[in-house]
Give the backbone structure.
Amino acid sequence: MKDLIVCNDEVRQALAEGKPVVALESTIITHGMPFPRNVETARQVESDIRAEGAVPATIALMDGKIMVGLSDADLDRLAQAEDVMKCSRADLTFALATGRYGATTVAATMMAAHLAGIQIFATGGIGGVHKGAEETFDVSADLDELGRTPVCVVSAGAKALLDIPKTLEVLETKGVPVIAFGTQELPAFWSRESGLAAPYSMNSAEEIGSLLKMRRNFPDHGGVLIANPVPEADQIPRNEMTGYIDEAIRKADAEGIKGKDVTPFVLGAILDLTKGRSLDTNIALVRNNARLAARIAAELV
Ligand code: PSU
Ligand code: MN
């Protein structure tokens, strides 16, 4: 395992010295945002984390290795490579064994972060139970990973293109505490509101830190999901978003999009329908999550 995980110097040193480190995923770069704003955002989010006094560790699979902390050159290679695999738990070893480039989803990033000794991970939105899952069985491996791997994931909640009530039910079944930050309501990614109460609410990084310290006594308890609402100024309100999401899902159904292609396709369709506004919101919420994750990481050192 030691040979499979390649931490860059900055991450290796921070982990050795017990400094705060925040993991970042790479599917958001390769499958979640268009070039070149994907790379600009990846760099911006890394510098947001540094500005809060933590070290960013962007995770991806390259040349048969789990890379933890990418150089500028690695990031460019990944963002511009064709045929980058979207890697969740089921795909991780396939990408490593074949030497393919793999972007890690929330699930695979949690696995890699845990192997590297990183406890906090910032992203945009998690995968969940898709609408119509009672027919398609499309339930993201992110939920299973949250149930088994002890990493705290800071997200902006679940996208309203998922079935949010069913997603909450599965998280509860798998024993994952879901904590809304600074609000009682579960945020819905582009929108601050979902119409659903969050199971729990906390108001400071310190409170979240104390929960995570408590969970260290229970190493088989899996992960924690933080749902941090997008800043007010950057949100697209729920009633407006619903129309775009329904239209994008209709398009995906009409074109027969299935399985792991659904989320990237729907995100792309929403980008067109909102004339790019959804991307600005997406970037704002990822940056907001990265800053909170860095503050939580500081509580754990
Ligand atoms: N949400 C976004 N952008 C993304 C994803 C989610 O706004 O790129 C990615 C994350 O990597 C997440 C994955 O883990 O989609 C979920 O995919 P699936 O539903 O196929 O498990
Ligand atoms: Mn899926």
